[in-house]
Amino acid sequence: MSEIGHQQQKVEANILVLGAENVGKSALTVRFLTRRFIGEYVGTESIYTHNVNVDGRETLFSIWDSVCPQNPNLNNCVTEEQLRWADGFILVYSICDRDSFNVVRQQLQRIHQMKKRHCTVPVIIVGNKRDLQHRREIPSEEGRLLAISSDCDFFETSAAETYHGSLVVFHQLLESLRESRNSNKKNTGIKGIVRSMSAVFGRRRTE
Ligand SMILES: Nc1nc2c(ncn2[C@@H]2O[C@H](COP(=O)(O)OP(=O)(O)OP(=O)(O)O)[C@@H](O)[C@H]2O)c(=O)[nH]1
């Protein structure tokens, strides 16, 4: 995420949408971009750009709607290129598909493994297809628990039923990006080095 010119206050956010096949990644993305649910989506990888005013600030979203590998495992479920590109992540599962929840777990693990040494990175977990309650396999509490234990935000949505849910997800991620960018800034530079050293020595003294 970067700022273009202080006066313009333009914000850029690269958002990677991940999750297993058929969970509604494209539906959620297209809902946010167009307010519409069209039902069937081309199953190809796409990066969409979307210029929009959020809280009085011009914001350029680049949204990478990914395609999950056939047999996702920890090494291929998120690529290095995707991890380098993304400022923030939306991990989508279907509330009616236990396997898709497990894919989100793996993707989360991979993101934390790769990113933890560099900076904090915002992640939102989304349980989609909330309209299909009769087929629910993942209780809301389970999704929320995974999010709390991984320091992520959590929402359940129905891309089929409402626009509002997708709007809240993307706007919340933007908000978290701003916060994490500010905190990452504070932790760089000489103050950050001093803070990190005090943390290390402070901790050692208590061992
Ligand atoms: N009932 C219901 N169906 C949904 C919802 N979101 C998506 N779908 C349907 O689920 C199917 C898959 O949606 P996609 O958006 O293509 O899912 P995807 O995760 O992008 O799938 P891949 O491109 O295969 O990775 C489509 O038939 C959608 O119409 C939802 O909230 N509720």
Structure report:
- The protein is α/β, with parallel strands linked by helices and 207 residues long.
- It is built from six helices and seven strands.
- The protein has helices spanning 25-34, 80-85, 98-115, 140-149, 164-186, 189-206, and strands spanning 2-4, 10-19, 46-54, 57-65, 88-94, 123-128, 153-156.
- Strands 1, 2, 3, 4, 5, 6 and 7 form a seven-stranded mixed sheet that branches.
- α1 (25-34) packs across α5 (164-186).
- The radius of gyration is 18 Å and the shape is globular.
- Bound molecules: guanosine-5'-triphosphate.
Structural class of the helices, strands and pairings? alpha/beta
Tally of separate helices: 6
Helix percent reads 40-55%
Mean of all residue-level pLDDT scores: 87
Evaluate the radius of gyration: 18 Å
Can you list the ligands bound to this structure? guanosine-5'-triphosphate
Distance between the termini: 38 Å
Determine the strand fraction and express it as a percent band: 15-25%
Shape: globular
Low-confidence regions: 203-207
Order of helices and strands: EEHEEHEHEHEHH
- Major sheet details: 7 strands, mixed
Number of strands: 7
Features:
207 residues, alpha/beta, 7-stranded mixed β-sheet, 6 helices, 7 strands, globular, binds guanosine-5'-triphosphate, P-loop_NTPase, GTP-binding
